[in-house]
Amino acid sequence: MIDAVAIARAALADPGLARHRIDPQVRQVRVLVNLRQNLTDQRVALTNRVLAAVHIELDHRLGQGALATRAKVGRVRALVEGAGLDEMVRWALLEQLEEIHTLFVRAAEVERRLKELVEPLAPNLLGIRGVGVVWAAVLLAQVGDVSRFATSARMARWAGSAPIPVFSSGRDRHRLHRGGNRQVNRALHSIGVVQVRLGEPAREFVRSREGAKGTKGAYRALKRHLVDVVYRAMVADQVVRGRAEVCLQPAT
């Protein structure tokens, strides 16, 4: 129901939006992205249960990041093994920790396969600072055929990264767009955070707008700028893929 309403709103907001198309390689990326997300959701849910169980059984409160990596899972396993727990309680906790470790391993394998698919498909996209294999895969999977967006502004509106003007306030201001594709929006936000942390240009971009827009408004402006950058990269990558497909076609 929610998806149907979102589709209807998108169609009303932009009647000229082209039909979504996706090539076979990008479809494979989408399948792997969905699998990775499912594994991550399972791991997060199980992690929360184990953190609560350790707190109850060992009277030991672990931080939220205590099971965030395979190495940390190993440390918690050692803690459980060394605790004076009943045999079945220890066994149950160790079984769940082993499952968390397995989910990490399975997700890593998915990411390895994603890397094999994404690197040839999106070299320009991967060249953007802050865009790793996972976020590039998410963008490819969600956007599909980037040519369906005539401009980067249309892609920004679709992604929910174009701030909405507020006219009732009596002054020129914008508010956050809470619609759009939330996966792409999250990817853009994460890319922006990495760029601000590591790159002086993005840091200066945010700093120069904080006075007038506030910190949140400055980050919204950065996300809107990133849509332009991502859009150009994806268009360039798709052009290269199109040329490669033409070259691979048998002569008639």
TrEMBL record:
Positions of the Transposase IS116/IS110/IS902 C-terminal domain: 124-206
Biological processes per GO annotation: DNA transposition
Top-level lineage group: Bacteria
Residue ranges of coiled coil: none
Gene Ontology MF terms in the entry: DNA binding; transposase activity
Pfam families: Transposase_20
PANTHER family named in the record: TRANSPOSASE FOR INSERTION SEQUENCE ELEMENT IS1111A (PTHR33055), TRANSPOSASE FOR INSERTION SEQUENCE ELEMENT IS1547 (PTHR33055:SF16)
Name used for this protein in its record: Transposase
Species name: Nocardiopsis metallicus
